[in-house]
Structure formats: C-alpha cells, structure tokens
Specification:
Length: 301
C-alpha cells in the first residue's frame, strides 16, 4: 500500500515537471527560432540554450554575439545590407515628412492638393517635353526631385511678372535669374511646396519674396483688405539682420508696384528693437506681408 502511494506521488511529480517544462517551452517559443516547429527534444534543447543565455551578463552576451558574427562568413554582407535598408528607411521618412508640420504628422493630416494659384507658365513652356526640361535643368546644373515639377523659366519675362516688377529688378541690376530662381520661382508661383538649397548669394530671398508679393497683390486686387485683416503672406527669418534684409526686398517690389499704378501692398517688419506702435499701425490698416523673427512674432502676436 505504501509502495503504491509512492508510485502515485512520483507519477504526479513527473507530470508536474513535464507541465512546467511545457510552460517554459511555450514562453520561450517566440524567442527561439524554429521552436514551435521542432519536436519535443529539440524544443527542450533550444529552450535550455535560451535559458543559459539569459544567465549571461550583458558583457558576456556581447562577446558571445561577437564570436558568432566572426564565425559567420556572410556577416559583413548581411550587416551592410541591414545598414543600407536602415538608411533607406530613414531617408524615405525624412523626404516624406520634410514639408509636414509636427502637428499635421501627429494628427495624421495628409494634403493631396497644392495651394490654389492662377499662375501658369507660357504655353511654349507648358508644351515642352520632359526631356527638354531636363536638358535645360542640366544646363543650369539644377537637380530636382518631385512629381509634376513646373518647367524652368529662363527669364523673368517668362515668369510673367508685370512691368513694374521687371523695372524693380532692373533697378537692382538684376537682368537674368540665377539657377535657384530659374526653377524655384515657377515652383512657388504654381503654389507648390518646396525645399530649395543653393549657395550664399545665389538669390534665394527673391525665390520666396517675389511670389509672396504677387500672391498678396492678386488677393488685394480681387478683394481689398479691411482694417485689421491679414496677413496674406508670412516670412520667418532666423535673425534680425536677415529679417530686415528680406523686408527691404519686399518693400522695394511693393513700392514699384504702387508707382506703376497697381494696388498698395503693405509690409510689416516684426523684430526686436522696433516700435510696437509703428508695427501695429500697419496691422490696423490691413497688412499683406509680415516679415518677422520667430521669437518676436511668437511673443507679441
């Protein structure tokens, strides 16, 4: 009777041990490659190896990983492939989100249409084949990425600026566009988003000031701004000096438009050290373009 009781207890202990082993194997199966498909003995071996690894220190695990990599003849090629895949994924994410604000990304906002614009390039440029457009870009050493890129314009006249703007450019001694202007101004006039990269002194400021002035003029001619309305365009600069330089460029074009018989386009400079009363006087009239530093506009308006 006693021997039978001991046999029953031993059987229960063995069953409990098998159950614990099965539970451990089930817990380790997602972490052990091929564990789910292996037979019972193989799973136990893999589970034991995983359990042994879990007892190693972090330094020992690194050394063990290094030994395995050195023993793998394809490790260098596999590591290079993984690095290339990581760089490609990072570059794709940056390119995709380059023109999206943090708030839009967080909210899942996706823009499918460009900003409305009535500007169209001349017919001869619209009918130009893509191969010819690329040859023009190559001649100007222009590199572009994107879909349905507006054609490059070789002159300010092709960009369809009114005579007062052409006179304002000539007054500054500017007769031909630079490469960044050849492609950048048509892109901005078409209402497309853009990231433009060019060296210092290449005329990047005009790439966004001229389209901004033209959009403001178009809106003013369609329906004049009422007091305290605006702005239509906002230009942010990283420093006071750059903001003032950009403001002077905007005022230069707006003054020539007014003298040429067009509607008045009012600009305001919002930087530290300038009188708030003078700035607000422009706002009360209705301001079309504000040129500001980030700190000034975020703390005052």
């Amino acid at each position: 009777m006693k021997r039978g009781w001991e046999d029953d207890a031993g059987a229960k202990d063995a069953a409990a041990k098998r159950a614990r082993n099965a539970a451990e194997v089930a817990a380790l199966a997602p972490l052990v490659p091929g564990a789910a498909a292996a037979d019972g003995a193989g799973v136990v071996v893999e589970a034991a190896a995983a359990a042994e690894r879990s007892t190693l220190s972090l330094l020992e695990e690194v050394q063990e990983e290094k030994r395995r990599n050195e023993a793998n003849p394809n490790y260098a090629a596999e590591e290079k492939a993984r690095e290339e895949a990581r760089l490609l994924a990072t570059t794709t994410a940056i390119t995709t989100n380059a023109l999206t604000s943090v708030a839009d990304r967080a909210g899942g906002v996706v823009y499918t249409e460009s900003m409305p614009s009535s500007w169209r390039p001349p017919l001869k440029l619209r009918s130009m084949t893509e191969e010819k457009r690329e040859r023009l870009r190559d001649r100007w050493h222009i590199l572009t990425e994107g879909d349905d890129i507006p054609p490059p314009c070789r002159s300010f006249k092709e960009m369809r600026f009114p005579p007062p703007i052409l006179e304002a450019l000539a007054a500054k001694g500017i007769l031909r566009p630079t490469p960044i202007q050849v492609q950048g101004i048509p892109v901005a006039l078409a209402g497309r988003d853009m990231v433009g990269i060019a060296f210092t002194g290449s005329g990047k400021t005009m790439v966004f000031t001229l389209p901004c002035v033209m959009f403001a003029l178009e809106d003013e001619m369609r329906m004049p701004l009422a007091p305290n309305e605006g702005p239509i365009g906002l230009i942010l600069a990283p420093s006071r000096e750059l903001a003032r330089q950009t403001f002077d460029v905007c005022v230069h074009f707006c003054d020539h438009l007014k003298r040429g018989g067009f509607a008045e386009v009012r600009c305001m400079l919002a930087i530290g050290g300038e009188s708030m009363r003078d700035q607000m006087a422009v706002v009360h009239k209705g301001v079309h373009i504000i040129v500001a530093t980030v700190n000034r506009i975020s703390s005052s308006y």
